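[job 4471] stage=fold_predict status=RUNNING
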Amino acid sequence: MAGRPRPAPPGNHALHATVPLGSILALVTLFIVYGSLYPFQFHPPAGTAGLFRTLFGTWQEWDRRGDLLSNILLYMPFGFLATHTSPGRAPAAVRALLAILAGTALSVGMELTQFYDEGRVTSMGDVYANAIGSTVGATLSALLGVSMRWPFVRELGVNPEASLLLATFLGYRLYPYVPVIDRHKYLRAVDGLLPWLIPPPGDLARFILIWLFVAVVVESLYGFRRWLLVFPILALGIFSGRILIVDLSLTSADVAGAAIAFILWAGPLRWLPARPAILACLFAGLIAAMRLEPFTFSRVPLRGFGWVPFWSLMNGSTSVAMQAFFEKFYQYGGLIWLLRRSGMPLTGATALTAALLFATSYAELYLPDRSGEITDAAMAVMIGAAFHLLRNAALAGSAPPSLPVDAKSSTIIVSP
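[job 4471] inference complete, writing structure tokens
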């Protein structure tokens, strides 16, 4: 007598998809703790009003624009991932609310701990910004779960590495995201587009490579036919944003680079064999050149090597650090991603990128006004680990659930 079919455990498919994302959430949390509590020099402060009184005494304070945006962006991934990885079958709104509360609690905990950390400032303004960031991330996660079947949206979940690279590229190009209504600002933003201004060859070549990279990312998400529509719309959206957003402007090299990249990728490069490998080599050269220009090396090191990860990002301007983080992420992650598309395994692509960044960081010791440190190589390793986790999550999310199997004959039971 044949045994009864044994159904697959309920929720097994979703559980496997959330395990890697839970690991990424843990990494995001560790990054927040590291950035909030560095340099980890704790001691009881003298002559202060007390822990809670100091924090809640700043309830009327708000961060300045740069710090506000940076703190919002810092907690957006936490809110997004905390909502997406919440266990159980609770509605999306409930999971988002729990993620917001968790992000706010984490921020309050960091601010209270900073009371004892030398050089750090305890402020409710940071809590407000972090709570907003958690709210935005949680809301996006809840809405994305509903809208993953929408055209041009579901592809973002299928290829998470490309989606993340595109998001960080946009984050870099459009920072600080604050539009203004000022006709004079719009005119200043397009001054670099005057027809008699010829783009400098170096700038033009740099933007051509950058936009070729964006072209590869967009095509990997949507295919060539829809790429013909999405790429121009994306470029026009970025150009419009740089006109409308405060402190940003357009250059002729940027616009010409996008146009030339579109023509090259739609025409000659489309039929070129091994084009991902060629673009990966060119992109690696671009990263090295940008890090080592103007190539005026001294004969002896001008400073010591920094072995503390993210030291310069945490000790400089917050707004500059956030924009630099986005730029480094899309560049280093882009090189790893291109090397993978060339056939190299993720481990090798990550190691090669980290080696390039470590070598150029060490070479920066011989350049004036530069600082060589371990941050960039460490970022490459972290990005490679994130890509591994994201890929596992995407594969788990796309795998079909287990089919029931007959206990004696091991025959798959297919329901009519």
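[job 4471] summary: Residues 110 and 196 are 53 Å apart (CA to CA).
[job 4471] exit 0
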